[in-house]
Design brief:
Blueprint (H helix, E strand, L loop, with lengths): L2 H21 L4 H9 L3 H28 L6 H17 L6 H9 L6 H30 L5 H26 L4 H14 L8 H28 L6 H16 L9 H12 L4 H18 L2 H19 L1
Helix pairs in contact: 3-4, 3-6, 3-9, 3-12, 4-5, 4-13, 6-9, 6-10, 9-10, 9-12, 10-11, 11-12
Length: 313
């Protein structure tokens, strides 16, 4: 077996293993009754917010590409992002989402290095934004967490602050000049300059990332309404960022299993029945698949265009 096959097998085991563990003791009759009573207006609203989130992601990636001197249209970035999400959903072990996005906009005159860098930076800024949201919300959640987790959190924060203080002191007293030189060298190798990634530009793409995450959270909230789950949107804004971050860790197939496990654990703290939150989590996964369906058309259109170009040549 190749490394890619072993990795896919591991992810499949994690996803199916966690889902089996969560579903084995679930009351299936109650689950189906909840499923039958779903209000489709809320599902449709949730789907629209998921699509809006994809459009925001597309726009953010286009801004990153433009700063790296790769000019593409907004429609191109949308088609590439939808196609990547769709292929990533239906063929999770074959082609990665970012690989498909790159393939969709690739042309001979484009810089391959900058294209790859744009995908890495786009993913990094998304993770940074969700960590920023978690940092702002975590203190509101601490009263609900077990004491051992609260103590661990404060130890981690104290360690981080002490490390930052030591780093600042070392830099101030000229003990880490080599670090600055190393960063400058890395930025030069990657083709990044200060004027390309200014504070204003960084704030703009971070704000877009936060807005995209907010749309995903609102989408999840409407799905909870569709099954009659008793929850407040404020709690969704506190918990969902942690769940989004957990699903971003590449140990499962598109977050399946990890998302359900994280949601069940976190929402049980607030007294929500496991059946309700598990059904909501599964619906979030299915809605994300539905939101990626426009990618079918974009992907087929792109393949047809490539065939046409080859015939002309």
């Amino acid at each position: 077996m190749t490394k890619q096959q072993i990795l896919f097998l591991f992810k499949a085991l994690v996803s199916f293993g966690v889902l089996f563990f969560l579903l084995k003791d679930v009351n299936s009759e109650e689950l189906f009754l909840k499923l039958k009573s779903i209000t489709y207006f809320h599902v449709l609203t949730s789907l629209l917010f998921s699509i809006f989130a994809v459009i925001i992601i597309s726009y953010r990636w286009r801004l990153i590409l433009h700063h790296l001197k790769i000019k593409i249209t907004f429609l191109d970035s949308i088609s590439a992002t939808f196609s990547g999400l769709f292929i990533g959903q239906v063929l999770p072990g074959a082609i990665g989402i970012d690989v498909v996005r790159g393939m969709m906009v690739w042309k001979k005159n484009l810089s391959k290095k900058n294209l790859i860098l744009s995908l890495i930076f786009d993913r990094a800024i998304s993770l940074f934004a969700i960590l920023l949201i978690i940092t702002c919300s975590i203190f509101f959640l601490l009263p609900y967490f077990p004491n051992n987790l609260v103590i661990a959190f404060y130890i981690a924060i104290a360690t981080l602050l002490i490390s930052i203080l030591i780093l600042i002191l070392l830099v101030k007293y000229q003990k880490l000049n080599f670090l600055e030189n190393l960063i400058n060298l890395a930025m030069k190798k990657l083709g990044i300059s200060d004027h390309e990634f200014s504070l204003q530009y960084f704030t703009k793409i971070t704000s877009l990332s936060i807005l995209g995450h907010f749309f995903i959270i609102i989408s999840a909230f409407f799905l909870s309404l569709s099954i009659g789950m008793d929850s407040k949107i404020s709690v969704w804004f506190l918990l969902m960022p942690i769940i989004i971050f957990a699903t971003a860790v590449p140990i499962s197939i598109n977050g399946w299993g990890v998302r359900e496990g994280a949601m069940v654990y976190l929402w049980k703290i607030f007294g929500v029945p496991e059946n309700e939150i598990l059904l909501t989590s599964l619906c979030i996964g299915f809605v994300s698949v539905l939101a990626s369906l426009p990618g079918i058309w974009f992907w087929i259109k792109r393949k047809n265009n490539i065939k046409t170009e080859l015939k002309i040549l």
